[in-house]
Design goal:
The chain is mainly α. The protein has two domains: about 1-75; about 75-105, no CATH class. Helices cover about 65% and strands about 0% of the residues. The protein has helices at about 5-35, 45-70, 85-90, 100-105.
């Protein structure tokens, strides 16, 4: 983590890291349950969609934890501007500021 992080930001990042780690554990357990063979061919499509969504969530959590560890969390990957804390509180895995996200998605 970079040395210019304020103590209240460091505390917030520590809490966020803990919450993301917990979410990772919950999603990993969910993925284990979803990939167990239930023997119900009728629910295969729904189960496949749930597995894909869970894997995407795990990827997003892993990426956010990596950015925290590398000191890059909260920095837009496109323009290098700070991502507002309010956005990160709502969307902890955000990689882009709002203007860059709109350009990326559009």
């Amino acid at each position: 983590m970079t040395t210019h992080v304020q103590p209240d930001e460091r505390n917030w990042l520590d809490k966020l890291r803990t919450a993301l780690t917990h979410d990772f554990e919950v999603q990993t357990a969910r993925l284990t349950q979803l990939t167990a063979d239930t023997g119900d061919p009728g629910g295969a499509h729904t189960q496949s969609a749930l597995i894909a969504a869970t894997r995407q969530s795990l990827d997003q959590i892993t990426d956010a934890l990596r950015r925290i560890a590398e000191g890059r969390y909260g920095i837009c990957e496109r323009c290098a501007a700070s991502i507002p804390r309010e956005r990160l509180e709502i969307l902890p895995h955000a990689r882009f500021c709002v203007p860059c996200q709109q350009k990326h998605a559009g």
